[in-house]
TrEMBL record:
Swiss-Prot/TrEMBL catalytic activity: biotin + L-lysyl-[protein] + ATP = N(6)-biotinyl-L-lysyl-[protein] + AMP + diphosphate + H(+)
Name the record gives this protein: Bifunctional ligase/repressor BirA
Portion of the full-length sequence here: 78 to 323 of 323
Species of provenance: Tumebacillus lacus
Its job: Acts both as a biotin--[acetyl-CoA-carboxylase] ligase and a repressor.
Keywords of the record: ATP-binding, Biotin, DNA-binding, Ligase, Nucleotide-binding, Repressor, Transcription, Transcription regulation
Amino acid sequence: LGQSIVYHETIDSTNTMAQKLALNGAPEGTLVIADEQTAGRGRRGRNWFSPPHSGVWMSLILRPQLPVAHAAQITLVTAVAMARALTRLTGVEAGIKWPNDILFDKRKCCGILTEMHAEFDQVHHLVLGIGINVNVPQEQFPEELQSIATSLQGVKGVPIPRAEVVRAVMEELEPLYRRYVDGGGFASIREDWKRSNITLGRQIVAQTARGPITGEALDIDEFGVLLVRREDGETEKIYSADILFA
Ligand code: BTN
C-alpha cells in the first residue's frame, strides 16, 4: 500500500480525487495526499476542517474482493490501525469511538470516511479517507470544534512531522489489512478493536437515521455492527449512527 502517491498542494477533497482515479483504473494501494482541502468531507455530509500544512488529509484506494455486506468492517480495521499509530506517535493511549473516530480523552483527533463503489453485491473499490489533526494549535480550531477536537501536537505538546504520521499509519494499516483480506477476516481483528474501544460498556445515545436509540453499548457482532441494550431490555443492532455518551 502507498507504493504510488498522488500529491496535491491544494485540492477540494482527497476522497473525491481518489474516486476519480479509482474509476480510471488506479491500482490498489494508490494514495492521494494533500496539504490542504478546500472542501474536505466528513461522515453524514458534514465538512471536515482541513487547514493547510496542519494535518494529514489522505485517501487510499483499496480493491478487496469482498461482499458489500462486509465492507464496513474495513473501516473498523482502519480504526484499529489508526489507534495504534496515534498511540505510538504521541505516547498517549488513543481510543476508538464506534465505528471509527479516534479520540484522546473525549476529543476527536482523527476521522475515517470510507466510500464504496459496488457492482451487484461485490465491492468494486473502496476509498478510505483518513483525516488526522496533526499540528493544529488548539486556538485555530473553529469555535464549534473547540471543546470536541484535538491534534497530535495538542496531545504530545510538540509538533510532529506529517511525513512521520503518514509512515506510522501505513506501517500499522498494511499488516492489519493483509491479515483481514488474506483469510483472517474480521474475526482476526475484532478483539483488537474491542481492546482499543471506548464505547462498549457505556450508556450511549446512538443518533440513527431512524431517530435516537438510548441504552448500553454491549458489543460489536461479527460484522462490526454495534449492539445496544435499550432501557426496555431489547437489544438493537446499530448499523450506522453518531454515538454520544450519556
Ligand atoms: C469523519 O469523521 O466524519 C470522517 C472525516 C474524514 C476526513 C478525511 S480527510 C481526507 C479525506 N478526504 C475527505 O474529503 N475526507 C477524508
